[in-house]
Amino acid sequence: MPLIAIIPGDGIGPEVMAQARRVLEYYRSERNFPLDLWDLDLGAERFLRDGTTLPKEVADRIRNEASAVLLGALGDPRVPSNEHARDILFGLRFGFDLYANMRPVKALADRLVPLKNRTAKDVNMMVFRENTEGIYVNVGGQFKKGTPDEIAINEDVNTRKGVERLIRAGFEYAKAHGKKTVHMADKSNAMKHAHELWYRCFFEVAKEYPGIAAKHLYVDALCLFMVQDPTPFEVIVTNNLFGDIVTDLGAALQGGLGMAASANVHYADPKRLAMFEPVHGSAPPLVGKDLANPLASFMTVGMMLAHLGWKEEEARIERICAEAIETGNCTPDVGGTKGTKAVSDWFVDRLKG
Amino acid sequence: MPLIAIIPGDGIGPEVMAQARRVLEYYRSERNFPLDLWDLDLGAERFLRDGTTLPKEVADRIRNEASAVLLGALGDPRVPSNEHARDILFGLRFGFDLYANMRPVKALADRLVPLKNRTAKDVNMMVFRENTEGIYVNVGGQFKKGTPDEIAINEDVNTRKGVERLIRAGFEYAKAHGKKTVHMADKSNAMKHAHELWYRCFFEVAKEYPGIAAKHLYVDALCLFMVQDPTPFEVIVTNNLFGDIVTDLGAALQGGLGMAASANVHYADPKRLAMFEPVHGSAPPLVGKDLANPLASFMTVGMMLAHLGWKEEEARIERICAEAIETGNCTPDVGGTKGTKAVSDWFVDRLKG
Ligand SMILES: CC(C)[C@H](C(=O)O)[C@@H](O)C(=O)O
Ligand SMILES: CC(C)[C@H](C(=O)O)[C@@H](O)C(=O)O
């Protein structure tokens, strides 16, 4: 029986996770999906109480017993520089080698698209963000700190193994889903070492997929084109930092962070533990106001169910999310007037019906 | 008499520079501005002919005699990885210590703004991009190249001096232009060393400008907000790489790269040599078709004239560019039907009239 570890986290994290949990409860009790839920007390509250972030015993138990982790959001203004958030988030992404951060940039309704003369069908791409290296390794240092001569360095570390497996995941996904093009974004015209590897590796891997067009873009051009005309983009592969930037920009095209879901997976082995999180953060200003949009967390549950083998449920959840937008059964960030809880009530009813 | 070194460069570079030159000729011959023009034969053609990029004697003469450099665009598919372009572009930016790359993101007409429910007045910000360090120093290397164990690294190198002077330029500009807010974008939640310096330095410098609000953003959030609602942004300060990304995204909000001008300056000393370039590239597919939009190069000339002391001309050139858009005297990329040359004919006539 698949065990799902749930980390509600901080801010609106627990608010949306409470609703995502109701969706999971529906599948468990009304559809008899064999699912075990394991609630983990990790996040800012816990860290402020006793300094715990992601203890080794917990990580080990997740590794040995869980099939998936569902994460709400992390980040709390009371924790200086949010060290707990990084420990937990990167502990999961790096610690479980979840090298592909899959972030669908898909608009569910025309009115969510902020661009003139574009409709929902124009915004439909899957971004594969490298999730275990790049600038996120946080290798570097500060020298002569606090003096006029201070130097501060971070290294963008890329390995053939890391770059290749992420690029390959993008092509495999394209092949499996009938996509015609994979775009790769780098800044190889400025970063001659790190991104020359991306450039070279991209076209090498592409040779193994003769039916799929491989197109290279500089990241600055990609951001421009995503706004000018997002229609050509089907699958995008890129490094950790650019994936972060491009998917937040992508969220704007989808109607905001309240609509953006993500899966962190070890793509080559679908049986391995994976981690699922809505792209949004803990959003302190929204806390306690029943304003958080739960749809991103529902679609994140959809991605998780697909990963666990129930692929039709992902499509079904997405369809009901689109209906929520169309019928106004949604929160104010996406043009509705309902609260978090009322949207979820409606959503679970629709799931049942 | 100010000497202007002109480097037309590659692709559409020479096409737009020929038109920018006509504007300069108008100021020289009809308005009697004391301007000397010096045409430099540098770019892909020259590099392919004899391997020359930016020779030391030329750089020295520019340094000793010129008041400004006007650059068209660099980049040619015939030059592997465009080494000539980097040599020349970074030779000018780094070599003359032009640490502030000022890129106005300003929409001149409502119809150029690609966002629903936004008008030209909503898009009006000045981006200060650090221009002499960051990931562009290209420090790093490749190890075990071509093997499965390859590692490729680029370092993001930031100095207190470099970060502080760029941030200070942003606040000085805000003060001089009555702007109320300066935003700084970094990724200090992931790059704990390099961007912690940016974060710390930003709020330290901000203390010296008590009348101006200092606001910090992560770069991913900035890209999202620029699309969701660009109105709060007046002045943005950021590092070299993020400045590159944000200003291409910004160009999309202005109506495309054909509308984006830039100045590369040593901000603290306005008497020093500066370099001016439209943000667009050499655009090989447009070459020879009379399709290149010359307006970005005209506004770039405007920034140059302001730098040389003729501030009113910058505003005048911008006004006529806005009129070109309003009256359809513009190229197809901005909704017109005219060619490069016809737009320039109209433009120079309007300058005269
Ligand atoms: C919180 C932050 C470190 C994180 C990231 O940059 O990965 C977030 O922006 C995300 O996209 O998940
Ligand atoms: C050509 C490239 C190296 C350059 C840069 O990244 O600076 C360009 O994109 C720019 O913005 O001027």
Automatic annotation (TrEMBL), chains A, B:
Keywords of this protein's UniProt record, alphabetized?
A: Manganese, Metal-binding, NAD, Oxidoreductase
What the entry lists under InterPro entries is as follows:
ICDH/IPMDH (IPR050501), IsoCit/isopropylmalate_DH_CS (IPR019818), IsoPropMal-DH-like_dom (IPR024084)
What Pfam families does this protein's entry cite? Iso_dh
Keyword set includes Cytoplasm: no
Domain (Isopropylmalate dehydrogenase-like): residue spans on this chain: 3-347
Which SUPFAM superfamilies does the UniProt entry name for this protein? Answer: Isocitrate/Isopropylmalate dehydrogenase-like (SSF53659)
Q: Name one GO molecular function term.
A: magnesium ion binding
- Asked whether the UniProt record includes DNA damage among its keywords, one would answer no
The residues forming a coiled coil are none
At the top level of its lineage, which domain of life is listed? Bacteria
Annotated protein name in UniProt: 3-isopropylmalate dehydrogenase
